[in-house]
Structures are given as structure tokens and as C-alpha cells.
Amino acid sequence: MNKALEHQFVTELTNNQNIVHKVCTLYTNNRDAHNDLFQEITIQLWKAYPKFRGESKFSTWMYRVALNTAITLYRKSKRRIQTQDYESVIFKIKADEYDPTEERQIKLMYEAIKQLGDIDKALVFLYLEDKDYREISETLGISEVNARVKMNRIKTKLRTILNP
What we know:
The protein has helices at 3-27, 31-48, 58-79, 86-89, 102-114, 118-128, 133-140, 144-162. The protein is mainly α. It folds into two domains: 1-83, Orthogonal Bundle (Rna Polymerase Sigma Factor, Chain: A), CATH 1.10.1740; 93-164, Orthogonal Bundle (Arc Repressor Mutant, subunit A), CATH 1.10.10. Helix 1 (3-27) runs antiparallel to helix 2 and helix 6 (118-128) packs across helix 8. It is globular, with a radius of gyration of 17 Å. The termini are far apart.
């Protein structure tokens, strides 16, 4: 990669690093895993950047690479034998745990989102980033109608998780 392209990549990554951090938050449960995933996504972005054609916004392309990397690593980690206690892995959110503070609400929402499937997690993430359904469908490779239907089903599922 030449110096100009390298500088352009670093600038784009710096301007959009919050995207990567949010993806990492959705797919990890602790700081070390978050940092590892952030590093892996950055490496994948670096490798793929010379092939970025600019047909979409950089942030859209970045979402796709970040989500694909996170999903791939998440699936690989699920195949490994887990040594943790089964109950510690599953998030159970009860109504009596509800705390009206905004930070607690956000944490509860992230815990609920983590219970969703890979594609559903990605869809919610993009939705929360105020992406329109056209951009969501392009990023995830599904139809716009399918994105809308899935989002409505996910909202219902999240309500059930948060208010059992």
C-alpha cells in the first residue's frame, strides 16, 4: 500500500472507529475480547482497503467488513468447547433488574441484543445507527422488504426479552 493510500485509510479508520467499537460491543462480553476483535477487524479492513472501490460510502463498506469479521469469529468461538458455566453465558434479563438510569438501560438493551442471532444483531446495530432500510439491505445482502420484516420481528423479540 502506498503512503497516500495508507494515510487515507488511517484517516477513514480514525473518523469511523466508533463503528468498529460498537460492533465489538455487540459481539463480545469483556474488554480483552473487545480489544482482540477490534484488532482483527482493523487487520481485515487494512487487508481489504486496497480493493475498496468507493461504490458505496466508506462507512457502509466498513460496517460490512466489521460485521462479517465479527460474525465469522463469533461462529468460530461457538464451535470451541466452552469451559464456562452454562448459566454464566446466557443472559437472563428480568423486569426487576430494570434501572431507570440511561446507562443501565443501554446495558440491558445490549445484553438483550447479544441474545439475538448473528444477522439479527447486525440488523439491529445498523438500525440503531440510523441507517435506512436500503442501506441496511445493501450491507447485509438481503432485500429491503426482508430487512423491514426482520426488524419488526426483532423488536417484538426484544420486547419479550426485556419485559418477560
